[in-house]
Design goal:
The complex is a heterodimer of chains A (422) and B (379).
Chain A: H1 3-21, H2 26-40, H3 47-54, H4 58-77, H5 79-91, H6 95-113, H7 116-133, H8 138-154, H9 160-168, H10 177-201, H11 205-211, H12 215-220, H13 226-240, H14 249-260, H15 269-300, H16 302-311, H17 315-329, H18 334-348, H19 354-365, H20 376-385, H21 390-413, H22 415-421
Chain B: H1 7-33, E1 47-50, E2 66-71, E3 74-82, H2 90-102, E4 104-113, E5 133-138, E6 141-146, E7 163-165, E8 171-173, H3 192-207, E9 211-218, E10 227-230, H4 235-247, E11 253-256, H5 265-272, E12 276-283, H6 296-301, H7 305-312, H8 327-353, E13 357-359, H9 364-368
Parallel strand pairs in B: 3-4, 3-9, 9-12, 10-11
Antiparallel strand pairs in B: 1-2, 2-4, 4-13, 5-6, 7-8, 10-12
Helix pairs in contact in B: 2-8, 4-8
The chains are: A mainly alpha (422), B alpha/beta (379).
């Protein structure tokens, strides 16, 4: 048994013990497993490495905390209730079309930011009440939102995993629009209909109508929507039209949330911010733990061991290995999986169409955002719909996720033919 | 056990523990950021100036860096060597330092920048677990050199946008905005990284530098490795150099600079200045994603069992076995390359612009089978 394998087993073992026996938070468990890896790997207690590993997620943490504040503000101001009411009233007769439209709305912030978290916490949180009013149970609604987040982060114009893989082998981010649309749109439609059409078709509008909150719209009029409009406007002006400098997602969320303090119901902003930060703390802790975990994996050679184990498989099963290992490694980070495994696999598949292959790999890598313990898309989707245990969302998403992997692998295998066709 | 009873004590322990960790790590990062790497110029260096002479915005920033001038007694052409574009690619950095410490220019003028992206020398890439330093034995004792990051320090340039749009319109992952070799020709008052690349472009234009070489390393599994990438105007000269390199036992391929890949020295310096823009890559096992435990030994010996396995499986683009790919060998490739391209320049343009001749630096053979190490050429 190689040293690296022993270190890896110890790290995983300590993580499991901390999580399931000592019932420690996942972030703390990951930190302790990283420390165990250092000790077993003969590296002592390298404080610098443990801290340095967390730096990769500083920006992500800022996005998460500010997006959560925004979400709480639009919820407390009444904007969510108002928007849900309008959408249900207008589209309740056409559930399939409504589901597809909702899916596209959820995807939109992810498409322009490249972040599933941004999609889930902004559009996802706004669409959650609509899905629930349509008669979809909370777990299925969370599953739709999570899948929307994944599709959004992969769909053009911005796909960060593809940029990371392309950057690793000097392939410019050009020509990715069509392959990414071919990958995401069919799966987005399939996921929305598979997860939501059955309950939505049974929606009894007369019952739903009684639950609709029409008072908010009557009282505040269209000004209730201003924070949402501000957010969409800021995203569009900086990311699509690029007429003003990119102020970054955290500031966009903060500005929109600040506007939301004056456009609807009154609420205590300090309490709201505290609630938002409190609810996002576990995920922020997980990200810190994951950062340490990856750094120590690299330091001790476990990362190289994992990459070479995957690449060392026979050529005939290498594609399947990519389909399994990339999402699994995504448990620590989808971007990490794109960088650590996506780059070597894209080099291993150089005989295929490079752009379409990278697109396919990025599509598969996005599944990392559903993999516990990080599971950014899944955990936040559960939060915005009020689902207590994320694992229920993961189970619900299993079939769309398996379809995603199979579709992505077929896409890579036939990448040359598909690219030639387009 | 009811932990709620000890809530305040646990909180206090956590806060104190966090402060201790922050203090220890903070001191480490601060010291590394302010570490002054020692370069001991040899007699070949005739003067120095600061890069900020070509963009005053760099003055007093971590982007400013020293340019070493090596002027020959005989007039001739001019040559700029960029080492340390990516400080996690140590053979480029060390080849430039070797020129400064042991080289002597007989004809022409050679400008050497050993720390091109100085800011990138002040930190390491998160999750790459790189050592801060590596050490080389020299006659004067053990010398310490910095192993830095591929990109400028986020303390100097933060935050990264989600997407980096180069002035040509090319889009890349946001963190590439801190990669100087994606920001050429640069922007005078842009980000720190763009300011550095602007200063280099401006310096080449102002001094009318005839030839430029950017020294890099790539992971062994990357296809463009053990290669020279040349701008189209430099292709003929590079072809001559490649032939000479083959004669000297250095296997080197020649790649044309892709027109669609923007922001790189071999494309933008070739397009925006009159210089003949070249870039060389060697294979660095400490840089890729396949290597085992990170260590100083990996940087210096370049020996790694996972890369051996990868070579057996046909994944690598460099010859690789149990002997690894040592730093000495990689520096030897770069130095031999520079010598051969100087010769090729002199052959092609010597009559018009004058020759460029540098002596005193080790050849590829010296550093591989000649029984010498790079330490023998450092002061």
């Amino acid at each position: 048994m190689s040293t690296e394998l022993i270190i890896f087993i110890v790290m995983i073992g300590v993580f499991m013990l901390c999580c399931f026996w000592a019932k420690l938070p996942v972030g703390v468990a990951m930190m302790l497993s990283a420390v165990a890896g250092c000790i077993v790997g003969g590296k002592g207690l390298p404080v610098r490495h443990l801290v340095e590993g967390t730096f990769s997620y500083i920006d992500t943490i800022l996005v998460i905390s500010t997006a959560m504040v925004f979400m709480k503000v639009v919820e407390k101001s009444g904007a969510l209730d108002a928007l849900s009411t309008v959408i249900i009233k207008r589209f309740h007769r056409y559930p399939a079309i409504l589901l597809i439209l909702i899916m596209l709305v959820i995807m939109f912030p992810g498409m322009i930011t490249g972040s599933s978290t941004a999609a889930v916490l902004s559009a996802g949180s706004i669409m959650a009440p609509v899905l629930l009013l349509m008669g979809i149970d909370t777990v299925s609604a969370a599953a739709i939102i999570a899948m929307g987040g994944l599709m959004g982060m992969v769909a053009p114009p911005v796909n960060l995993p593809a940029m990371i893989i392309g950057g690793g082998i000097d392939v410019p981010f050009v020509g990715f629009g069509i392959p990414l649309l071919l990958l995401t749109i069919p799966i987005a439609i399939f996921s929305a209909l598979f997860l939501g059409l059955k309950p939505a078709s049974k929606m009894d509008y007369s019952k739903v109508e009684a639950k609709l909150n029409t008072e908010i719209t009557e009282k505040y009029g269209i000004r209730i929507y201003i924070p949402l409009v501000v957010l969409i406007l800021l995203m569009a002006l900086t990311k699509i039209f690029k007429v003003i400098p990119d102020i970054g997602m955290p500031l966009m969320f903060v500005v929109s949330a600040a506007v939301g303090m004056f456009t609807g119901r009154k609420f205590n902003i300090f309490q709201t911010i505290a609630e938002a930060v409190h609810s996002s703390l576990p995920v922020m802790g997980i990200l810190m733990g994951v950062g340490m975990f990856i750094q120590i994996m690299t330091l001790t050679g476990v990362r190289g061991f994992i990459v070479m184990t995957c690449l060392g498989l026979p050529e005939s099963v290498r594609l399947i290995a990519a389909g399994i290992s990339i999402p699994l490694f995504g448990a620590v980070s989808s971007f990490g999986a794109a960088s650590v495994l996506g780059v070597p696999f894209s080099l291993a598949f150089l005989n295929m169409d490079t752009v379409y292959t990278i697109a396919g790999l990025s599509f598969i890598a996005s599944l990392g955002d559903m993999m516990p313990p990080t599971a950014l898309a899944g955990i936040f989707a559960a939060q915005v719909t009020g689902v207590e245990k994320y694992t229920a969302v993961l189970k619900k998403c299993m079939i769309p996720m398996i379809v995603m992997v199979i579709y992505g692998l077929i896409f890579i295998y036939f990448s040359k033919s598909i690219a030639a066709f387009f | 056990m009811n932990l709620k009873k000890y809530k305040h004590a646990i909180t206090a322990v956590c806060v104190l523990g966090s402060l201790a960790v922050a203090g220890i790590a903070g001191k480490d990062f601060y010291d590394f950021r302010h570490y002054e790497e020692v370069i001991i110029p040899g007699e070949g260096v005739t003067s120095t100036f600061q890069l900020s002479d070509y963009n005053e915005n760099l003055k007093g920033t971590f982007g400013d860096t020293t340019v070493y001038v090596m002027e020959g007694e005989k007039e001739g052409g001019s040559f700029l060597v960029l080492g340390g574009t990516h400080p996690n690619e140590p053979s480029g950095h060390m080849a430039a330092i070797t020129m400064i410490e042991s080289g002597k220019v007989e004809a022409g003028t050679v400008y050497v920048i050993p720390r091109t992206d100085n800011s990138a020398f002040t930190h390491n890439d998160a999750q790459e677990a790189s050592p801060h330093f590596f050490h080389i034995e020299t006659e004067s004792g053990t010398r310490e050199f910095v192993f830095g990051s591929r990109a400028s320090n986020p303390i100097d340039q933060w935050p990264d946008p989600d997407v980096y749009t180069h002035q040509s319109g090319q889009t890349l992952s946001g963190s590439e905005m801190r990669n100087i070799n994606r920001t050429y020709p640069g922007v005078k008052d842009g980000t720190l990284t763009e300011q550095i690349s602007y200063a280099i472009t401006n310096m080449i234009t102002t001094l009318d530098i005839d030839m430029e070489m950017d020294l890099h390393e790539a992971s062994p599994e990357y296809p463009t490795v053990n290669a020279t990438v040349a701008h189209e105007r430099a292709m003929d000269m590079a072809s001559m150099g490649i032939l000479e390199l083959q004669m000297a036992g250095v296997d080197m391929s020649l790649e044309p600079s892709p027109v669609t890949l923007r922001g790189l020295t071999h494309r933008e310096l070739g397009d925006h200045t009159n210089t003949l823009a070249l870039l060389m890559e060697t294979g660095n096992p400490s840089q890729g994603r396949l290597h085992g435990a990170t260590s100083e030994e990996l940087i210096i010996d370049g020996k790694d069992k996972f890369y051996e396995k990868a070579a057996e499986l046909g994944y690598l683009y460099i010859p690789y076995d149990e002997n690894g790919a040592s730093l000495d060998m990689r520096i030897g490739r770069h130095l031999q390359g520079c010598v051969e391209y100087m010769k090729a320049f002199s052959d092609m343009y010597g009559a018009e612009k004058g020759e460029i001749i540098m002596t005193g630096i080790p050849s590829y053979e010296d550093l591989t089978s000649g029984g010498k190490t790079i330490g023998d050429y450092l002061n």
